[in-house]
Each structure stands twice: as structure tokens, then as C-alpha cells.
Amino acid sequence: MTLQLSGMLKSQGWKVERESGTAYFYNHAPWVAPLAYLHILFKGATKRALSDNSALLRLPKYWLEFLTVQNGAILFSGAFSIYGVKETGALLNRRDVFQRGPFLIESENKSWQPKDRQREIVIGGYSYDGTLAVLDRDKGTVSAVSRKNHNLLMSWAGPDEWLTEEMDRLSKLFDKSGKITVGGERTLPG
């Protein structure tokens, strides 16, 4: 069964306050910016987007299933992001901030390549210093590694453990209104 971030967010007390054609927006955060939200959860990827990216990126079946349910997310005011996919040739809608898409697995892997490109793929990241969340395609493990030198900061047995533990850990760093209560460096794993 595929992990659903919407259920995790709901269980933590976060509420959908806006929906667009591409995403669900949780907990308006006007102290960040007038149109900011604490969490943005992108709607599931289309079959075409998954097809266009699965062979190119060699995404494991379980990660494709995850992207079918939620095509990435920007969580905790951007402290933690999960990357998504798009259809080949799809244009970015710059006119409406609420029609945005996720950060893309393909472009993130071109910009910040994992150490072992044959075995690993970057599936997310942390904004404080650019720490990468790297999926080992063969083993199924997820590791948090430094963007600059690829030093291992933390590892998890799989994506479900990574997401469950990180969502729980990060939720404790924000108050009920969604304001961070600690220094930004604490948003990093490890």
C-alpha cells in the first residue's frame, strides 16, 4: 500500500485551505508571504508524465506508485520537499501561483547529481543547506547526504520510513499555527 501524505498531514492537524487544479494548499502562512502556505501537496502525476519519466529516470515501481497518489510536495514552508514529474513538453504556468507544479526529479538530478548515478536518484531535499534525499534504486533505502561532499547525514530502510519519521520530526519544530519554533538548521536530518 502506498503511503499517502494527505493522511499524515491530516493526522498532524494541518488543514486543506485551498485547492487548485494541481495541488492542495494547507494552512495559510501570511507571515511568510501573502500567498504562502505551510504545505503544498501536489495531485497525483498523470499516466503520461509517469510514462515519460519512468524509463528515463529508471524510477522503481513503488516510487511511481507514490507519484501516482501525490506528485511531490513542498512541506513545512519549504524546509522539506519531495520532487515530482511532468509530461514531456508541458509548459510552466507562471501566471497563477496556485497552478504551480512540484520541483522536478529530472531537473534536480541534472543540477545535483547523486554520487552513484547508476544506482541512486535524488527524490527530495532540504532547503536549509540543500541536503539531498537520495533513493538507492537497488536496495530501496533513502539517505540524506550533503549536497557539496555527499557525506551521509542519515539513512532510512525505505521511503515510507523516511517520510514517516521526517514528517513526525519536522511537525514538532512548528507550532499549531505553522510557525517554526527553532533555528532553521534543526530542519535538517541527523
Structural notes for this entry:
There is one protein chain. The protein is of the alpha+beta class and 190 residues long. It has a single domain (5-175), classed as 3-Layer(aba) Sandwich (SMI1/KNR4-like). The protein contains five helices and nine strands; from the N terminus they run H-E-E-E-H-H-E-E-H-E-E-E-E-H. The longest helix is centred in the last third of the chain and has 13 residues, at 159-171. It starts with a helix and ends in a 19-residue tail after the last helix. The model has no long low-confidence stretch (mean pLDDT 92).
Order of helices and strands: HEEEHHEEHEEEEH
Full CATH superfamily name: SMI1/KNR4-like
- pLDDT averaged over residues: 92
> What's the CATH topology label?
SMI1/KNR4-like
Low-confidence parts = none
Rg (CA only): 16 Å
Global outline: globular
What's the structural domain tally?
A: 1
Strand order of the largest sheet: 1-2-3-4-5-6-7-8-9
The level 1 CATH classification is: Alpha Beta
Number of helices: 5
Give the helix/strand layout.
Layout: H1 5-11, E1 16-19, E2 23-28, E3 37-43, H2 47-57, H3 61-69, E4 70-75, E5 80-82, H4 105-111, E6 120-126, E7 132-136, E8 142-145, E9 152-156, H5 159-171
Antiparallel strand pairs: 1-2, 2-3, 3-4, 4-5, 5-6, 6-7, 7-8, 8-9
Pick out its properties.
190 residues, SMI1/KNR4-like, 9-stranded antiparallel sheet, 25% helix, 25% strand
Give a summary of the structure in a few sentences:
The chain has helices at residues 5-11, 47-57, 61-69, 105-111, 159-171, and strands at 16-19, 23-28, 37-43, 70-75, 80-82, 120-126, 132-136, 142-145, 152-156. By secondary structure, the protein is of the alpha+beta class.
